[in-house]
Design brief:
alpha/beta, two-stranded antiparallel sheet, 12 strands, about 325 residues, about 20% helix, single chain
Length: about 325
């Protein structure tokens, strides 16, 4: 288990006293320290609360160089290994220089031991905001992390939780950019179907800044989390285009996007607000509850290949953004 160093705790205390939720500089306590993880490989860790996560270190990791970091969250009923295979962010085709951290959701219902969920979902009881904060603190104590370039992505419920991270007052100021895929943006405060109006429902959000970069992906054939919203599991799901527009307005952008068709897709469109600060990628009419990929993966089974790789677009988006 990674332990917080005294210097990391001291730095966090100073930042807290100044009313800031991110470190005072981009270098972390792990800079200059030999990592316990072999570069180019994975290592599993457990927090003091018993939560599991897995860290992948780039092959050319240099402990004297601040390294960007990606947090990745699996979907409901899934686990870390499934997400590693799905997002492929540890493969050289997509990523050679970002640390990737895969976090494990909890199964809170003893009668459904494999039903893993994330905070914000109707049946979740876990505090995954704290879990994420604990993981960031622990990793920063061991590795040389560029705190200006910490990012978050995830699939389905994991994607919904990424949206929740972007709306969290503290973590929205520590994470530079967000990229949910087929996100389940549950609004569980609305638990009666007659009160759920997906196109007009307001998404609760208490972000700590107003310039948040966000790129979301969603398919028109998604029957798990409908693109046009739904009432599901006793919670309201917003229309995804309305959800994205609310993000644009929150960021002070025009509510009208610039649309660009996706070549060789089935009516796929990239909708950019504010030159892409907020971007919604409509994967296409034929793409379901998937992580879009041009090759077979655990979502598409080789039957619903996308015209693009979401992971490639996510990495390009992350490279374009940092906190300071």
């Amino acid at each position: 288990m990674l332990q917080l160093s005294r210097s990391s705790l001291a730095l966090a205390a100073v930042a807290s006293s100044l009313g800031s939720s991110h470190p005072l500089e981009s270098r972390t306590a792990g800079c200059g320290e030999d990592p316990s993880i072999t570069p180019g490989d994975f290592k599993n860790f457990t927090t003091s609360d018993g939560r599991e996560y897995r860290v992948w270190l780039p092959a050319d990791y240099d402990s004297m160089k601040e390294t960007p970091l990606i947090l990745s969250y699996h979907g409901a009923n899934r686990d870390i290994s499934h997400q590693v295979d799905l997002d492929r962010l540890t493969e050289l085709e997509f990523n050679t220089d970002h640390i990737v951290v895969y976090l494990q959701g909890t199964a809170d219902d003893p009668d459904r031991p494999n039903h893993t969920t994330w905070e914000g979902a109707p049946d979740s009881k876990s505090n995954d905001i704290k879990f994420t904060s604990d993981v960031l603190e622990a990793i920063s104590a061991e590795l040389c992390v560029d705190t200006d370039r910490v990012f978050a992505t995830g699939k389905s419920q994991g994607g919904g939780f990424v949206g929740r991270l972007a709306c969290d007052f503290g973590l929205s100021t520590r994470i530079a950019a967000f990229a949910p895929v087929s996100g389940a943006y549950y609004i569980k405060e609305i638990d009666r179907e007659p009160e759920c109006h997906p196109v007009t429902v307001q998404v609760p959000c208490g972000a700590g800044r107003a310039d948040i970069p966000l790129m979301a992906f969603h398919g028109g054939a998604d029957r798990t989390i409908e693109y046009h919203g739904d009432f599901r599991s006793n919670a309201c799901l917003p229309d995804v285009s309305s959800w994205a527009r609310q993000w644009a307005l929150r960021d002070g952008l025009s509510g009208t996007p610039a649309n660009v068709s996706i070549a060789k897709s089935d009516n796929g469109v990239v909708m950019k607000y504010g030159d892409g600060l907020v971007t919604l990628v409509y994967d296409g009419d034929n793409i379901g509850h998937d992580w879009p990929s041009t090759t077979r993966n655990g979502d598409n089974d080789g039957a619903r290949l996308a015209a693009f790789n979401a992971s490639e677009r996510i990495m390009a988006f992350f490279r374009d953004h940092k906190l300071r």
